[in-house]
Each structure stands twice: as C-alpha cells, then as structure tokens.
Amino acid sequence: MIPFSPPRIDDKIIAEVIDTLRSGWITTGPKTKLFEKKITNYCSGKSTIAVNSATAGLELVLRWYGVGEGDEVIVPAYTYCATANVVVHCGAKPVMVDIKPDDFCISVSEIEKHITARTKVIIPVDIAGMPCNYNEINALVNRPEIKALFKPNNSIQQKLERILVLSDAAHSFGAWYHGKRTGSLCDITVFSFHAIKNLTTAEGGAIVLNLPDHFDHDELYRYFSIMVLHGQSKDALAKLQKGAWRYDVIDAGYKANMTDILASIGLVEIDRYDNDTLKKRKYIFDRYQKAFASYPWAELPVYETTDKTSSYHVYLLRIKNITEKQRDLIIQKIFDKDVSVNVHFQPLPLLTAYKNRGYKISDYPIAYDNYAREISLPVFYDLTDDMINQVIEAVVASVEEVIYA
Ligand SMILES: *Cc1c(COP(=O)(O)O)cnc(C)c1O
Predict the structure, then answer these.
(1) Which partner for 132 in 77, 81, 122, 124 could form a disulfide, CB atoms 3.0-4.6 Å apart?
(2) Which atom of ligand 1 is nearest to the CA of 57?
(3) Cα(217)–Cα(181) distance, rounded to whole angstroms?
(4) Ligand 1 centroid to 173 CA: how many Å?
(5) Which of 5, 123, 192, 200 to mutate to test the pocket of ligand 1 (most atoms within 8 A of CB)?
C-alpha cells in the first residue's frame, strides 16, 4: 500500500533528537530559541514564537487582539476546521466566504462583501501551499471606507486602526508571493509543523510577527513567549540561573510552548528544506502534472504562476464533470489498487459542528464544486519513481472505470 504522507524520519533526525535527550534539556530551551531565529530568518519576518500547534498559535493571536463575543472573523468555507474552531473558542463568529475556482484560495471580492463594523480579523488560508492574494487583501483592509467601519475596542486594536490580517499558512511554509516568502506577506502568519505538513516537528507550529513598524516586536515576542507558558514571567531555563527562583504570573496564560525535543526535528528539517524537501515535492508535482496533462478529464492544479510559487504541499487533482458520488467511487477504486489518497477538504458547512451553527453548503457553490471533484494524491519525500508511476496508473484506471462505465 502506498501511504499518503508519512513523515521523513531518517538517521539525521534521530541523532538530533538523541542529542537533545542526552543534553538533559527536553522542554523549551536553546533549541527552540534557535529554531525560532531560523524561522524568522527564513521567511524574513520580524519575530517568531514557536508553539505546540498552529491551532494554539491562531487562538493566541485572536486573544491577543481581543477578539471575543460580538466580533466577526472572516474565514474561507474551504479549509481545515481549526481555522474556524479557534474563532468559536474565542466566542466570536466565523463569517465564512467562498473561494476562487482556480487555486482554491479565499475570494477577495467575497471578503469585501462580508466585511461589517464587527469584523476584527481576516484569516486567509494558503490552501495546498498556494499563497492567497495578500496584496489585494492588505489593500482592502487599508481602504479609507473599510478603516472607517472598524470599531476598535482595546488599545491594541486602536494601535492598528484596522482589520488584522492573520494568515493560516499551515500548508505554505516556503511558498513565494511577489518575491517574498509566506511569513512576511501580512500582519501575522501562523505555520503548522504537524506530522503531515511539509516541515514537521511531529506536532508544532509558529507565530511569525510582521506587524507595522510602530509595534514593538521585541516586546511582543516577550509577551507571546510568556503567554504560551501560563503567563509566567520566567521560563524554566531562566529560573535555572542561580537564585532566580522567584517569578510572577502576569496574566492567565496558556500551555502552548514548543519543546526542545520537537524543535530538534525542526532544526534538521529547516536546514534541508529548500534544497532537498521542496525540490523533491516539486519533482513529484511536475511528474503528476505531466502525466495527467494528456487526459481530457483531468483538471490540473495551479501551483506556479508568474506571481506565486506553491510550497507543493497537496496535489489537488480535480476530475471534470463528475458528481461527489462518482468521486467517492473513484477513490474507493484507487484504494483497491493499493494507493492511499485523500480529500482536502470537506468545506466547513458540511460538518456537523458548523451545520448546527446554521451554515449552509448551498451558500458556497465554488467550495462545494471544488470539493466534490477533488482527489489529493500522495506527496512525500520517500516516494520513489516506481511508486509515482503506480499512483498515476491507479488514478487513470480508476477514473476511466467510473466515467466511461
Ligand atoms: C493542519 C492545519 C491546521 C492545524 O494545524 P495544527 O498544527 O495541527 O494545529 C490549521 N489550518 C490548516 C489549513 C491545516 O491544514
């Protein structure tokens, strides 16, 4: 069975983890701090806080911005549930909008239609690794009539004087947009290092700050580093200094810190990310693209344009003119040929939690159509040429068994 996306665990990773274990320092410490610096440098952000998941990172940012009851946060209907769940956790309302048919990213004209005086944050999601249209989104939140609608209700919101743009870049570490990497495309970007993501630490994430320059990014770094650790004014490493046992708790913080065991995996991964990981992923994408280009039923994903280069996270193949049922049957037949595939994603209004909150899939026709015809193919470092051929053969045979039946 060809798996969908196993992590790359090789001797280098194992040696680095063992080094951490032997060092005696297993929780947040020097390796986490080094990993944060490498992420900041890699994506040219202003400051980075490592966390234990992207979900925790997104929620911490929403709470820092004071998002709560009565507020609205605009999210795409087409994403993983975490994007909207964190809004619900804060007591605010996720306002879902439809996506674009070409690259699955949030539609900026739909965002504009859904902005109200209650809108505090927009969370674009770089689906499959393709960056959203950040220039347009940043321009939109800075438009005078949109800024005039914004009603700040705390000092941080007053300082920004507009809607915050918070990127869910769980898929897009290393992607490019107009010559810049994700992490420096909007106010704040959150990455995921979950096991299935391009760059993994098993579980983990990072908040990359890139707010306007009148925000003090050193102070924000200190604030978030404290809030990911109970609100405690000194972390375990600082308390280790001779006699420095006393600490304060400045606010009721969270428990969302990254550990050095996990950061050590990330340190190996980030050093080989561009020249090894991304190269291999692009190679697999290009092999699939070339193979499926000759079939009239294949709608090929867009992953490189003049403005954007994807991080090659998920290969989103669509089949033309099929129903959701036919797609499900094709997937069944692909699995029968010992190839694992997936669907990214079920739009949120299809899920019970959001159906129960009154969202209707009929309001998101493009999200539904993209979902109903989509099949995600295996992409991972150890995928061999023979396996790629087996995937292509299984997909072609399964699609043709169903559509020419
Ligand atoms: C994986 C994922 C997340 C959540 O990441 P975690 O690190 O597991 O919290 C959020 N958004 C999207 C789009 C994802 O795919």
Answers:
(1) 124
(2) 9
(3) 19
(4) 12
(5) 192
To the nearest 10°, the Cα dihedral for 127, 129, 134, 135? Answer: -130
Tell which of 240, 271, 302 closes a domain. Answer: 271
In a domain, 3, yes or no: no
Per-residue pLDDT of the chain (405 residues), as tens digits, is 999 999 999 999 999 999 999 999 999 999 999 999 999 999 999 999 999 999 999 999 999 999 999 999 999 999 999 999 999 999 999 999 999 999 899 999 999 999 999 999 999 999 999 999 999 999 999 999 999 999 999 999 999 999 999 999 999 999 999 999 999 999 999 999 999 999 999 999 999 999 999 999 999 999 999 999 999 988 877 777 888 888 999 999 999 999 999 999 999 999 999 999 999 999 999 999 999 999 999 999 999 999 999 999 999 999 999 999 999 999 999 999 999 999 999 999 999 999 999 999 999 999 999 999 999 999 999 999 999 999 999 999 999 999 998
Asked whether residue 214 falls in the same domain as residue 87, the answer is yes
> Which ligand 1 atom minimizes the distance to the CA of 344?
15
Q: How far is the CA of 242 from the centre of ligand 1 (A)?
A: 40
- Our answer on whether the CB atom of 79 is closer than 6 Å to any ligand 1 atom is yes
In a domain, 99, yes or no: yes
CATH classification of the domain holding 278: 3.90.1150.10
Q: Please check whether residues 192 and 332 belong to one and the same domain.
A: no
316 falls within a domain: yes
The answer to whether residues 265 and 31 touch, using CB atoms and an 8 Å cutoff, is: no
The reply to whether ligand 1 has any atom less than 6 angstroms from the CB of 168 is yes
CA distance 230 to 207: 17
Residue numbers of the domain that contains 361: 273-403
Q: Is residue 181 part of a domain?
A: yes
d(CA 35, CA 270): 8
Which is the closest atom of ligand 1 to the Cα of 53? 7
Whether the CB of 205 sits within 6 Å of ligand 1: yes
Cα distance between residue 97 and residue 329, in whole Å: 29
Residue 69 alpha carbon to ligand 1 centre in Å: 24
Which atom of ligand 1 lies closest to the CA of 125?
A: 13
Pair 369, 224 in one domain:
no
CB 142 within 8 A of CB 136: no
Q: How far is the CA of 293 from the centre of ligand 1 (A)?
A: 30
Q: 385-403 and 324-336 helices cross at what angle (nearest 10)?
A: 140
